[in-house]
User: What shape does this take?
Amino acid sequence: MTDEIRRALCKHNKDNPSLTQKQLQEWVHSNYGLQGLKKLSKIEKEERKRDRATGWTDLETGHHTHLMISIMFFLEEFHHLKIQLQDVLIATDNFGPNKLIGHGGFGQVYRGELVLPEGRVMVAFKRLDRKFGQGNTEFWKEIMMLSKCKHENLVSLIHFCFEGDERILVYKYAPRGSLDRHLSDTSLTWMHRLKICVGIARGLNYLHDPMETKQRVLHRDIKSANILLDENWNAKVSDFGLSKLGPANQPQTFLVSNVVGTLGYCDPSYFETGLLSKETDVYAFGVVLFEVICGRLCCEYRKNELVHILVPLWKKCVDEKKLDDIICHSLKGQIDDDSLMRFSTIANRCLHKNHRKRPTIGKVLKELEAVLKQQLIAVNEKEAESSQMTTATASVISSSSIALFANVLGRKGTSVARVKKTGVLSDDGYTWRKYGQKYVLNSQHPRCYYRCIHSKLYGCPAKKQVHGCQQEPETFEVTYHGDHTCIVSSSMPSKAMTSHSPPLSPPTVQWLSMDMAGQPSGD
Assistant: This one.
């Protein structure tokens, strides 16, 4: 019967993650009677005995005497971190709505300024809401964890307030908020996303395999909402209210009555068995990796009700090599193919059903650092290629009838440039007037003609009609300099020549103006 209750508790905790000890006892009594309560008591004693034997620390809700002793100990040990409630009220305008920046299971978060030794500093105040499930346990655990664990990729605890009914944690302010708010942001580049993922992995690696404290921390609630970002997009792992602290030589522990994490991120085997290990955090991090590359959260909600968990779909697409079906559209074209394959592979391995076959966070970190390095090499190669291009500039005469005359040699698939002269466009702000184009490389190269019919500006693909040439225009930019004169500049790759031309490096370009009929005015 004990094993049956263990399994039932795991399932019930999954559906009701904020049970108090009293509620847990009532649930067991209603389902298993007095005999079940005796079994529950036996389970709890085994848990406490095992924790003492293995060195694992978890302030279980309901052990009132143990909790009060721990609070007295914490107040003495961390007295230097305590702050007066009056200072908090002044900094937050008495918890004014204009200072509110977020909320979660713990309570509400406010921003404000405190005077610290280094001067006035913007901080975040996380205020415990006593009406909800999380409470003293998480409050003191967060203080204990963050006072022991110091790392550049962990959130920094500055102060706490323990006064009357108020429980407030004070952190260094993260101006960009949490990662979940930026997943769909098209301006968040692939390089930024990789940097964030590497930062999370470094923070977790410090928690799992510490070098100095010799104590391991299992976070148990890794998710995008618990990753904070500073002004430079550096990741900070936060929210240690559900974490567990123990010796680094213990590979795993068992939990029954505690909170098990967040739906969508929680390891399925942990849900089913109650077995907690380092790889439980690895699974959750794998979900975050997929969220980063897919640009969306792992769960879909409608009217605050869960309708779909996307993790199985993501795994299936990786297994079937259909990454294009799930990758964030704004990232396509930014990601080096080899980097994409390595990133998706390591993310998929983190989600292996068998936790023993998942990589350690140390191995995940090495892979992500390799992906970042590979992506940097690809970017540098593109920049080196671009630096080999020459820039040709010349004056172009502007008139009211013919808006722009420019001759550009370039590669196929490029777009017509950004234009900074309103006179270049027709009245609709969309269409270029028809005009002829001509470029002259040098005496060894043929002359080619282009006629631009219709173009969207600012980086959109252009519609072109090309005559007598195998090349299409490269991107160019026009800047108005007054006196009816525009300066036209363009990058010319040396390899972008007609197929029958001898290779020259670099090509020289002469810009020619056209007459009103759209014909070349010079040779």
About this structure: Residues 29 and 35 are 8 Å apart (CA to CA). The radius of gyration is 31 Å.
